[in-house]
Automatic annotation (TrEMBL):
Organism lineage: Bacteria, Bacillati, Bacillota, Bacilli, Bacillales
Coiled-coil regions listed: none
Domain of life according to the entry: Bacteria
Protein's recorded name: SAM-dependent methyltransferase
Pfam families xrefs: TrmK
The organism of origin for this protein: Ureibacillus manganicus DSM 26584
The keyword Ion transport is annotated on this UniProt entry: no
GO biological process, one term: methylation
Length: 235
């Protein structure tokens, strides 16, 4: 992967960036995504934010090599602190982190979101917490994508301003994803069911303490939620 040819995962993230956007890519690593968006005339200006010195220096080098120092600002900063008032950022991308970390970044500097109209978030795990955050903070799902790359399964959530009400099932599985029910979606959740059933088996010999009973009920409930979608042809 490089700034000319992104991974399938980042290429999909890039596909949701509106033409003419001013973008902040948080946790930008080598700044491949901002460079790609500028080179392909998708974004007109970009911020590459990185909290770790090594990746920050890699991003600075990459932007220089691409000749994009007048279009991309690389900043060493914690999360949304990379965004300054005068930037007029309208789109934020955060990719390659866990869902809880992405939510903590969004919650830490909420004022940085005041001019933002689109969030493109790619959690490696626990997408549910992002949907929960979105529902509480007046963001609505514009789209969701699930894809597999290098034997790993990723979800990409695209949010815009608006009210949203999701059921427990939709929070867990993704409203758009469970409606589409792609092969990758089925593969992911069948794997999750198998893991849950293994945990359930390990609890069978345990003493029936209140904690064990509650855990067993929680797992059975999750299995029921997922199987209800996988086995329903109309969902």
């Amino acid at each position: 992967m490089n700034a000319k040819k992104l991974s399938k995962r980042l290429e999909t993230v890039a596909s949701f960036v509106p033409t003419g956007a001013v973008i902040a890519d948080i946790g930008s690593d080598h700044a491949y995504l901002p460079c790609y968006l500028i080179n392909n005339k998708i974004a007109k200006k970009a911020i590459a934010g990185e909290v770790v010195k090594g990746p920050f220096e890699s991003a600075v080098r990459q932007v220089r090599e691409e000749g994009l120092i007048h279009k991309i600002s690389v900043r060493l900063a914690d999360g949304l602190e990379a965004i300054e008032d005068g930037d007029k950022v309208d789109t934020i991308t955060i990719a390659g982190m866990g869902g809880p970390l992405i939510v903590s970044i969004l919650e830490k500097q909420p004022e940085a979101l005041k001019n933002v109209t689109r969030l493109i978030l790619q959690p490696n795990i626990h997408a549910k917490v992002i949907r929960e955050w979105a529902m509480k903070n007046n963001w609505a799902l514009l789209d969701e994508v699930i894809l597999e790359e290098d034997a790993k399964i990723y979800e990409i959530l695209v949010l815009q301003r608006g009210e949203m009400n999701l059921t427990e099932q939709e929070l867990l599985l993704g409203k758009h994803l469970m409606n589409e029910k792609s092969d990758v979606f089925i593969k992911k959740w069948q794997r999750e069911i198998d893991n849950l059933k293994r945990v359930l088996s390990s609890l069978e010999g345990a003493e029936s303490t209140p904690d064990v009973v509650a855990k067993r009920e929680e797992i059975l409930h999750l299995i029921s939620l997922v199987e209800g979608v996988l086995h329903n042809e109309n969902s």
